[in-house]
Amino acid sequence: MIDGSGCIRNAISRLLPDGDTAAPLAIVDRFAEELARYAEVIVGPGGRPVGFMTRGEGPLFTDRVSAALASLDMPTEARAHQSALASWFEHKRGFFKVEWHERPLAAVYFRRRPPIAYVLGRLESWGVPAAARARALSVAATLQKNSVHFVSAAFRPGREIHHKLYFSQWVTASTRADVARRIGGVFELYGIGPEAREAWAANHERCLGEEDSTLFVSMSCSSRELPPSFKIDYPGLQPEIAADWLPHERRAAAIADGERARTLAGSQRLTFVGVRFSSDRLEPELKYYCDVPHR
Questions:
Q1: Closest C-alpha to 64, from 22, 12, 105, 26
Q2: What is the pLDDT of residue 281?
Q3: What's the pLDDT at 209?
Q4: pLDDT per residue over 199-210, tens digit each?
Q5: CA 197 and chain centroid, separation
Q6: How many degrees, rounded to 5, is the angle at CA 114 between CA 110 and CA 119?
Q7: What is the total count of domains within the chain?
Q8: Which helix (H) or strand (E) holds 229?
Q9: How many CB atoms are located within 10 Å of the residue 55 CB?
């Protein structure tokens, strides 16, 4: 058992204004059982957003997530989509994330590794246009993946559903060069310029460490939008290593952000650092994810 609820409650109480904590803390309490087994603290730049992720199995967990989405004022379509995903994946290996900033964001994830062809068929049935489906197929092919590690959907009040696909990359001494080449191909797919690609290449190897590890490359789309960005989640970084993705003048603040997430979770290092690259922005954006460890 872990003190997941306590860590998440502390993070929310410290990083959200006093008048904005009642509803988030009620959501935390709703998932106390799951958070006692698995809890991840999520912190963005400057402490915003702040949130958590947990995981669960079975129809009861699905129902709990659905009730949470309703309490967060998510659209009816979002709740129906969450139910459809859970049914598709037999209510197994589900994850729930919620973050608070100006408005709440919630997301569900399923780690079932369906074939990419099957996912593309589902995207079509959900109204995702051909251009976005073609991008998903190209990303999978570039990363040499026949399946999707996590199928996800993100929800905001008053916004359409955003579909997210996560592709894993197993990094070993024998695959490091191939992984770098594949990810470089994703930069080309997104039309991200050479300056940003060179900056990524200079930091990528340093973030891998010496041990075997798994990183994730993710993309998103909706029925109306194909965002110009993708994200790489790097595992096991210390805050000062993560901060080197940013210009010198922003690194002190980034280190403080990473240390905040690590301290709130009570962990020695960050579980993942999300590094988002975009064709319309030279500098990447960072977000910090830190599991609450077993004592």
A1: 26
A2: 85
A3: 83
A4: 999 999 999 988
A5: 21
A6: 95
A7: 1
A8: strand 229-235
A9: 19
Tokens 């489906």 belong to which residue? 133
* Long-range residue pairs from 92-96, CB within 8 A, at least 24 positions apart, any chain: 92/57, 93/55, 93/57, 94/55, 94/56, 94/57, 94/61, 94/62, 94/65, 95/53, 95/54, 95/55, 95/150, 96/31, 96/34, 96/53, 96/54, 96/55, 96/56, 96/61, 96/65, 96/68
Which pLDDT band, with edges at 50, 70 and 90, does 102 fall under? Answer: confident
Q: Which residues pair with 235 in a beta bridge?
A: 272
The pLDDT of residue 208: 92
H/E element holding 44? none
What are 288's two structure tokens? Answer: 């910090």
**Residue 9, C-beta contacts closer than 8 angstroms, at least 6 positions apart:** 25, 28
Which DSSP string do the residues of 166-217 spell out, in sequence order? EEEEEE-TTTHHHHHHHHHHHHHHTT--HHHHHHHHHHHHHHH-SS-EEEEE
Other Cβ atoms less than 10 A from the Cβ of 9: the count is: 19
More confident residue, 185 or 195: 185
Average pLDDT of span 127-147:
98
Euclidean distance between CA atoms 293 and 16, whole angstroms: 23
**pTM strictly above 0.85:** yes
pLDDT at residue 210, rounded to an integer: 83
Domain that includes residue 121, residue range? 4-291
Nearest to 12 by CA among 54, 42, 38: 42
Residue 144: pLDDT over 90: yes
